[in-house]
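Teaching assistant here, posting this on the class forum so everyone can see the example we discussed in section. The complex has two components, and the goal was to see what a joint structure prediction looks like when all of them are supplied at once.
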Amino acid sequence: MLLRHTPKEIKERSALAINPAKTCQPIGAMYAALGIHGCLPHSHGSQGCCAYHRSALTRHYKEPVSAATSSFTEGASVFGGGANLVSAIENIFTVYEPDVIAVHTTCLSETIGDDLPQMTDKAKKSGKVPEGKHVIYANTPSYVGSHVTGFSNMVKGMAKGFAVNTGKKNGRVNIIPGWVEPSDMEEVRRMATLMGLDIILFPDTSGVLNGALNGEYKMFPDGGTPVADLVASGDAIGTLALGEWCSADAARWLDTQCKVPCTVLDMPFGLKATDRFIDTLRKVAGVNVPDTIAFERGQLVDLISDMHQYFHGKKVALVGDPDQVIALTEFLASIDMKPVHIVTGTPGNKFEKRIDEITSEAGYKANVKAGGDMFLLHQWIKNEPVDLIIGNTYCKYIARDEDIPFLRFGFPIFDRVGHQYFPTVGYKGGLHMLTRILDLILTRTDRDETEEKFELVY
Amino acid sequence: MPSSAKKLVNWTPTDIKADMLAKYPPKVARKRASQILVNEALGNETPEISANVRTIPGIITMRGCTYAGCKGVILGPTRDIVNITHGPIGCGFYSWLTRRNQTDASAEGAENFMPYCFSTDMQDQDIIFGGEKKLQAAIQEAYDLFHPKAIAIFATCPVGLIGDDIHAVARKMKAKFGDCNVFAFSCEGYKGVSQSAGHHIANNKIFSEVVGENDAEKPGEFKINLLGEYNIGGDGFEIDRILKKCGITNISTFSGNSTYDQFASAHKADLSAVMCHRSINYVADMLETKFGIPWIKVNFIGAKSTAKSLRKIAEYFGDPGLTARVEEVIAEEMPVVEEVIAEIRPRTEGKTAMLFVGGSRAHHYQDLFAEMGMKTLAAGYEFAHRDDYEGRHVIPNLKVDADSRNIEEIEVKADEQRYAPRKTSEEMAKLEAAGLKFKEYDGLIPDMDHQTLVIDDLNQYEAEKLVEIIKPDVFCAGIKEKFSIQKLGIPMKQLHSYDSGGPYAGFQGAVNFYHEIDRLVNSKVWSYMKAPWQENPELSATYVWE
């Protein structure tokens, strides 16, 4: 047993987090910043944070993740990191020539109270920022929220750093896809394009973190949201923010500061959330939904009906980021699966309320916890076993100990690939996801069934 | 792919160095120039390199931090200590199962906390009002849940800044429990210039808080400590297999596949064998000073090096039975190794490698490449000090700068009861006269060829330059470097985590490595970089169906 010390009996813990279902803000900021074309994320703090975040993102994407650091030593921690940041900005623009440096703080620079606006301003005034180049920033203290919060803060930093309201609308629609995979961002764009929308998608990590191998290394790959698009986001006719936790802050900022009205939707995982997404796009664009999309929807409904007997009533343990888990819970409940244990590491009571709404509509009450950890999830599973676990790579220890099929979903996924290439959003994503779930369930049946019951046809 | 030899004709190492520095602002260029050395090691003169100096802000470094060195590298591989990271969640999360330290906890009732991540998950109110109470409660909760024999506390950056006295909390809880050792590490990420500082903090604390705690006699003959071996990919398992086969008893590995009790009993060994000089040479010194255990440098990376290291250990013990057994084991193990070398060597001979990793691996792995007929054109360390490059003779001359001064040095004296020289001074002198060197390490530079490049704290920009110019057949570094190198069409082998391969130590490990490098440098994938239409773009005639 890998997690042999996890007892079945659940005791309240007030201070000790065990096997967290979240990580810290800066990594989210780094991931978001990689979704700007020509952008080098910069971690303002000691260099270990940057190393850890680059390692984790690299392991998840199997792609180069470039990011710089202010490399604080004890001196900078005592006297402030201003000098480190200014020299970092100079070195970065000289050596790597990015279009944008996206600075985020760490718990170190936040604790000593480094003032990013003042420091970046100083760098600009002292000529360290070349003409036509940009420095944007986000405050991402690691002791507040989670990696999701950091992502949200950097997305807001993009709006604050670039969006300009010229007073003349450009007819475009902002879509903020939230913390999803490059493949999902690509899929959001495809769906919006099929609907006939001219969109500004930010951030957009497709083409950056699911790149090609061709013998050339580009520190700044061709993908990512162009700076011109981010500037134009202030003149958009509206913003569609996917995910309350990941995307709403930036959308609301654009609303109040640039008069770009916003709508916040769930992430389009599964049938219902995708329906709402497409329907909103239809209204925004004032168009009919093209047959292609209706057909894709029909395929998903078809699969659900064809294979319903294998999903129906299956109990699921689910752990991940709030926007993703909410949409996924709704999806699973909508096909009559039963997510019975649901945890997110990110704090926030709203999460528990939303999950309660979804599950009570499905006629049951789930164990749900925001700000929870995987130790608790495991204990719940020990007390009430499930048919499937859905969560990040770290769930594999629970899955193996308890001998439960396991679907990798969310962040990080270190030990499998596919997430960067195949979407889970939209109807296509739903098909992909259901196919994988079904595969796990039927593979288990094939493994466990007695010989006389072992069948070719399901 | 153009061969490296063809490329090198047009470039001298001096040109390459100049090219790497050309783009830097003047101050950066000056600093980097002292960390990049065109090897001219000739005779007794070892050129000087600048090492263990601060990373330049904004330069994309390979380095990590002090916490990573302390919690991740040194304490990470120990299975029965509950390691609690005191800080916001990130540091604990990123050091959770990410170093591939394997451990064998299969014994009945064995404890294994390695798959767990424990953190105080500090929130903003803990930063504002102090985190000591939360830490104390977390230690209590860990104790109540698991009743471990030891709990270790690791400080992250903000903990040092807000002044939580983690050591006082540890002392208090240790006294309270009575049956659980509790100790703390002031390993805030901003200390020192690299993860090396964290190794020091970890090793010093383990030495002062744990080593010597168990005086019970350990069974077995020819007792050694294996220092600086972290059991990545099972290296330690393979070394243990060989030692056992020879009849040598390894009573404690620091810290691969280790337990609390192994550390507590380390003073019962009669010899310390040091693998990674950088991460632990000072522990070997302290074991000698306090308990009288001499140390030698060994290297179990490479079949020949393994044989040589076994012979060194046998020579030290001077027992004819052991010596004979070691020779038997070498004779048994080598044929397979030689068979595999003979098989793969036609495909690896003359190929080239670059190694930028760790604080000893960039040295040790050159032996394996040499066994395959491969030449190392450039190498360097991520977190080494000058002695790892130039040899221990420079230690007395090392400048102690502000960053090194932050790292606690502990004063060690001979233990009044337990100090016992393992050999008489005459015996030691005799062994030395016969060629066995104690407390000695010559460093990386003398082992590298004339006119190769030795580069400290290589960064992403320089790595890319090196690879573009020299086009080595394989590049070895870590996960952060892996994919940018591979995008250039050059296979990259991780030598921190081994890309899930290994073991690579010892005899079987050598065989694994030969196969792995053969696979990498001869994989067909590297010939697929361009599509057919990109290979011959000039062809523009219309294709006509007939």
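For the discussion questions: Residues 296 and 437 of chain B are 7 Å apart (CA to CA). Chain B touches chain A through 89 residues (CB under 8 Å). Think about how each of these relates to the inputs above.
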